[in-house]
């Protein structure tokens, strides 16, 4: 497919046909990552980012020991 970069206000834009977006499983309003590389641009759909607690916990090392972090002395009117 050949397309042409065009001016849109103070920016430039590239129109993508519906069938191209459908084949990439991208819909209007989806967030995408634009990755510039030498002589080319890659567009990747971002996942929704739903977190699954059970899956996240399963990736923790078995010997993980949580510890308390110190954020320093209170600076304002914090009450601890």
Structural write-up:
With 80 residues, this protein is α+β, with helices and mostly antiparallel strands. It has a domain at 6-58: Ribbon (Pemi-like Protein 1, Chain: D). Helix content is 15%, strand content 22%. The chain contains two helices and four strands. It has helices spanning 18-23, 53-58; strands at 6-8, 11-13, 32-37, 40-45. The protein has a two-stranded antiparallel ribbon with strand order 1-2. A two-stranded antiparallel ribbon has the order 3-4. β1 (6-8) and β2 form a beta hairpin. The longest helix has 6 residues, at 18-23. The protein is elongated. The model has no long low-confidence stretch (mean pLDDT 89).
Feature tags:
two-stranded antiparallel sheet, alpha+beta
Overall SS class? alpha+beta
Q: What is the mean pLDDT?
A: 89
How many distinct beta strands?
Answer: 4
Spatial separation of the terminal alpha carbons = 62 Å
CATH class of one domain: Mainly Beta
SSE blueprint:
Elements lengths: L5 E3 L2 E3 L4 H6 L8 E6 L2 E6 L7 H6 L22
Antiparallel strand pairs: 1-2, 3-4
Condensed summary:
The protein has 80 residues and is an alpha+beta fold.
